[in-house]
Model the fold of this input.
Amino acid sequence: QVQLVESGGGLVQAGDSLRLSCVASGRLFPTYAMGWFRQAPGKEREFVAAIRWNSGTTEYADSVKGRFTISRDNVRNTVYLQMDSLKSDDTAVYYCGQRARSDGRSFLSDRSKYDSWGQGTQVTVSS
Done:
């Protein structure tokens, strides 16, 4: 079992920054990638960003490219999401997900391929 604990959410104004953290523990081998997804009220959970655990290569949703940065600390088993120039549309619960394996064909944005999830952290951006 893998446990994921997110933190760092809060209430900020448009244009502000936040950094989310996700600490992973438990059975972390193997881990192919870690990702951030978000869910706004009445909407489906959507992909935000992901990072391959070994190579460090990243993928982003178009809506956050140039504003958000995902990174990881392999020693601390932690993944971060630096969010800059926040907009009201970024308001959502942000979830961290762990994907154990690659199937060689699906994208990191495919949430059905993630094996474990955290409880989420609320981000509210006021305009």
